[in-house]
Specification:
The complex is a heterodimer. Chain A is mostly helical. Chain A contains 18 helices and five strands. Classes of the chains: A mainly alpha, B alpha/beta. Chains A and B meet through helix 13 and helix 14 of A and helix 2 of B.
């Protein structure tokens, strides 16, 4: 077998590296499966967990008749079959091969359509609606464990190149779900929908933050000031909204103001890093230090005195008609505050802008090899200015996610280092907006998990602090390069100087 | 398009990279710019492409003076450049690289990849390029294909003058042949080409006009019909500095270093030293001559442990050092005056004293408990500064602040302050003034007379002849012959141009 030198990128080497990775991930999955069996599977067989789906009975789609369920089940199987083997149905399969990401989405939809009727048969209640489902904890553990081991073995044996990380993330989610079921055994029902919904809500600012980091680093500037931009955005937005007692139009301007404050600090970073060629990390840290100090000063000296300036004004919650009625997914994704939808839209727009537009191509070229961009007449410094200021704006809007999102007043230290975690999420998402979205959701889930564990404290054998530390532990694992093939933009953090 | 450079002068500090350079390139002409590394070719072309601003002089296009302040101006004036280190973005696709900077958009701001690909393939067809897949990632392509992408990029900007900076330096012989076909077809379609190289054979095969540069000046304009490889080599290497070294005949002792069938690969994985064997005796100077880029750098790196040879032996006093670490080489008594003293010889921000003990910090003289013996290091610095006449305010001055000659003296003083078996000097006098050159030569001859073996690598033929007791000529990584320094200049020219020992009359 030929050996791979990581430094030299050739197709052969890439294949070897990804095959090795697939083996490693497969082994990891099998280990997780074994853990699931040993840990969750060893629970007393009399113990059950009641999962509460808890959506609004009045709004749910009446997907209850057996006939409809069979149709959904078959449709799900059909979609998965086509997505897995696109060549079998040439006309539709063509779409999967040309439109990137469509295949993943199809598989997810298919899986959802498949799983939902199964759940309905299993857990239907007297009113003909799925509201709670009771599962045997030990059995679930065995089931999850066997699934993980099976998938892991298949991966280690067949060495999938491309779906390796997806499988690993899937295994991780199943592991966490198993943990939730285990922790809630024999006591209070598990509020699955509300945990997932709060996971999405808390990941809002992470999405904005990691998107900001992605944008800046794609252009070759390390924006380590996201934490500071968060604080500025959080403070500015709540003060503005409070001044107008949270009226509808003031909320819009509060968001805009949050963005502008973020952009201001982005601009300062840009001037220092691009015009004066100062060390980007140091400038970023100094900005964070400044913002920390300013926010402390303003909280103690201004907000504590004029408490009407630091109110509890939340952004409106929108339930998207139709979509919010989809069981489980509806309340999780489509019944959220406005900022969540803005975050989703920002991710989609940023991905399109980065990879489809002229501006995006130039941003990426400037972050990869600025000298090459300059020789074709691109103004490297201008492009970088634009990206860093826009990145600051996005992070500032994300800052509003701390205050206006959940509708809580500003408190000193409320950003809790999430600005730095956002950078880890950016790495986790491999400097891609969609990657940042997915990684944000995963981190958001661990955050929501630790917040919801209070309910089950007596069931928990491990200290709760460990769960609270989980996002930070994942951060360390990510930053130290444990996850996947991490390849930053080549000129990331490298100052550009003409001649 | 007729292009003219008139009286171009460019200085970097005290160094004059281009001095009053005049150059005319006519339409449909392949104009070769020939010269050694450091002769100022790249500087001149960077000026033409707007990457550097000249201190004096004018650029004329079709007899009109134009200002080229940045690459955008150059592109707008129809000048395209293929850099020695490609200006391609490795992780981008071929299409992305070609359209970057002039992306077709429809509707704004979405890139119209369909139009881009069509144009790319049309262009490739027009000039008989092979572009298999416009969506292939550039870093996965072989070097020759990357170069074609780079040329396509220039052509897609409607370049009518193409500057090619050492385009064949990175190509395999097969790729070079394919490249020459491309050049001829470009010429046939009326493009002018400025071709920078130091490879004589290619020049004679391709050029319409040859301009030879040396030390920032143009030293000759000729054509393949009027000259041959020997004539070009003589022009390139020149004889402007007259080296006179007083020395007695060598009294060679035992063999100190024996190199056997050495093969070395360069950073790109190409074999740049091929089957090199020689020996050096105590008390003699073996000089290695050759046009730069013929394997000298890799040979010296192998002989000093900086690069591991792919095969062959390096036997020093009976012990094979091949594959050992630099530390082993140093301990075995190898002294090294590197080619690039700023990068490998010195740490510019450290003081003279510190630089003088860089490789001797584990010597008990300079150690004290867990740290350094600062007093001894300073005393050592003062003593060596005195005996080597290093001109500086004090031995605590940072080395980076010294002139080139004094920096080289620091390197030499450090190497000579150890117990040496062999001293390897690469380009020992490059960029030095006459006084420092003389001093360096004196030191080298003295160390020889004290019974140390010496290897000198230099691209200055005069220096090689003046210093060497025997001269090995490298061409394309192979030793063509080892000859006495009294060999005639013409024969050296032939050897340096790759005519093997069988052809040269010895």
């Amino acid at each position: 077998m030929t050996t791979a030198t990581r430094e030299i990128v050739t197709l052969d080497n890439l294949r070897i590296i990804s095959r090795t990775r697939s083996l490693a991930y497969g082994i990891t999955l099998m280990a997780m499966g074994a853990l699931e069996i040993l840990w969750y599977g060893s629970t007393d067989s009399k113990l059950h967990t009641t999962i509460q789906f808890g959506y609004n009975t009045a709004t749910v789609w009446p997907v209850v008749s057996s006939f409809l369920r069979v149709i959904l089940l078959l449709a799900g199987i059909a979609i998965i079959a086509v997505a897995v083997r696109p060549r079998s149905v040439a006309r539709i399969g063509h779409i999967f091969e040309t439109v990137r990401g469509s295949r993943t989405i199809a598989i997810l939809i298919g899986a959802y359509l498949f799983i939902w009727p199964v759940f309905l048969w299993w857990g239907i209640n007297l009113h003909g609606q799925l509201r709670t489902m009771t599962v045997d904890v030990a059995l679930t553990g065995y089931l999850f464990g066997i699934m993980s081991i099976g998938a892991g073995a298949l991966m280690a044996w067949r060495r999938f190149d491309r779906s390796a990380s997806g499988m690993l993330y899937g295994g991780l989610l199943i592991f966490l779900l198993g943990f939730l079921i285990w922790v809630a055994r024999g006591s209070l029902p598990l509020q699955l929908t509300s945990i997932l919904a709060s996971a999405v809500a808390v990941s809002t600012f992470l999405m904005f933050g990691s998107l900001s980091g992605t944008l800046c680093e794609r252009a070759g500037v390390v924006n380590i000031a996201i934490e500071g931009q968060f604080m500025a955005g959080a403070l500015a937005s709540i003060v503005f909204a409070s001044a107008f007692r949270g009226s509808g139009i003031s909320m819009t301007f509060a968001l805009l103001l949050a963005g502008l404050f973020g952009a201001l600090f982005g601009w300062i970073l840009a001037v220092m890093a691009l015009r004066y060629q100062a060390n980007q990390i140091i400038v970023g840290v100094v900005i964070v230090a400044f913002c920390t100090a300013m926010s402390q000063f303003l909280t103690t000296q201004v907000l504590n005195v004029h408490q009407n300036l630091d109110g509890s004004y939340g952004l409106p919650v929108w339930a998207i008609p139709g979509l919010s009625h989809i069981p489980l997914i509806g309340p999780v994704l489509f019944d959220q505050n406005v900022l969540v939808f803005i975050a989703f839209a920002a991710v989609i727009i940023a991905n399109f802008a980065l990879f489809r537009t002229r501006w995006g191509l130039r941003v990426r070229s400037v972050g990869e090899k600025p000298i090459a961009a300059e020789t074709v007449g691109i103004n490297v410094v201008h492009i970088r200015y634009g990206a860093v200021i826009l990145g600051g704006f996005i992070a500032g809007v994300g800052g509003a996610g701390f205050t206006l999102g959940p509708g809580s007043p500003f408190t000193y230290g409320m950003t809790a280092g999430y600005g730095y975690i956002a950078l880890a999420i950016m790495i986790f998402g491999r400097w891609r907006p969609y990657g940042a979205l997915m990684a944000s959701l995963l981190f958001g889930f661990t955050i929501a998990l630790s917040a919801n564990l209070n309910l089950y404290l007596n069931q928990l054998v491990i200290p709760q602090q460990f769960i609270t530390a989980l996002p930070y532990l994942i951060t360390i694992a990510v930053v130290s390069g444990l996850v996947g093939r991490i390849r930053p933009p080549a000129a990331d953090g490298v100052p550009f100087q003409r001649h | 398009m007729k292009l003219e450079l008139r009286g171009i002068t460019k200085r970097f500090g005290s160094l004059t990279a281009n001095s009053n350079v005049n150059l005319v390139v006519n339409p449909g002409e392949i104009h070769c710019l020939l010269g050694e590394n450091g002769a100022g070719k790249s500087t001149l072309m960077n000026i033409l492409y707007g990457l550097l601003i000249p201190d004096e002089g004018q650029i004329l296009i079709d007899d009109e003076v134009v200002t080229i302040a940045d690459p955008k101006d150059a592109v707008n004036h129809g000048i395209g450049m293929v850099h020695q280190h490609f200006m391609l973005i490795p992780v981008f696709s071929v299409a992305d690289n070609v359209i970057l900077g002039s992306e077709p958009v429809r509707p704004w701001p979405v890139i119209d990849y369909k139009a881009a690909t069509t144009r790319l393939l049309e262009l490739a067809k027009e000039y008989n390029f092979e572009i298999d897949d416009p969506n292939a990632t550039v870093e996965n392509l072989p070097i020759g294909a990357q170069q074609r992408v780079e040329i396509l990029k220039a052509l897609s900007h409607d370049a009518s003058v193409l500057i090619l900076d050492e385009p064949t330096a990175v190509l395999t012989p097969q790729e070079t042949d394919a490249f020459m076909v491309i050049l001829r077809s470009l010429k046939a379609s009326g493009k002018s080409i400025i071709f920078i190289t130091h490879k004589l054979r290619e020049v004679l095969a391709l050029a319409d006009v040859i301009t030879v540069m040396r030390l920032g000046e143009i030293v000759g304009v000729t054509s393949p019909a009027e000259t041959d490889e020997r004539g070009l080599a003589t022009l390139m290497v020149g004889r402007s500095i007259n080296f006179v070294v007083e020395k007695n005949p060598a009294t060679p002792g035992d063999v100190v270093l024996e190199v056997q069938a050495l093969y070395v690969e360069d950073a790109r994985g190409l074999t740049s030293v091929k089957d090199v064997s020689f020996d050096v005796r105590a008390g003699e100077i073996l000089a290695v001559a050759g046009v730069q880029g013929n394997g000298q750098t890799e040979l010296v790196e192998a002989l000093t442990g900086m690069r591991h040879p792919s095969s062959g032996n390096i036997v020093l006093n009976g012990a094979n050092l091949a594959g050992q670490s630099v530390r082993h080489f140093l301990n075995a008594g190898v002294g090294h005056v590197p080619e690039d003293r700023q990068r490998y010889g010195l740490i510019p921000s450290l003081s003279i004293s510190d630089n003088l003990v860089l490789d001797q910090l584990d010597d008990s003289r300079f150690r004290r408990r867990f740290g350094r013996n600062l007093k001894a290091i300073k005393a050592n610095g003062a003593a060596l500064r005195e005996s080597f006449d290093i001109r500086a305010q004090s031995e605590e001055a940072p080395v980076g602040a010294l002139s080139g000659g004094n920096q080289q003296k620091v390197v030499m003083a450090r190497e000579l302050s150890r117990e040496l078996k062999i001293l390897i000097c690469s380009q020992p006098t490059r960029g030095l003034d006459v006084g420092s050159i003389e001093f360096m030569h004196r030191q080298i001859v003295d160390i020889r007379d004290s019974g140390v073996a010496v290897i000198i690598v230099s691209s200055e033929l005069d220096e090689v002849v003046a210093l060497g007791d025997r001269v090995a000529v490298l061409y394309d990584g192979e030793i063509q012959a080892i000859v006495p320094p009294s060999t005639s200049r013409e024969e050296f020219g032939l050897l340096m141009a790759g005519a093997g020992a069988d052809k040269a009359t010895l």
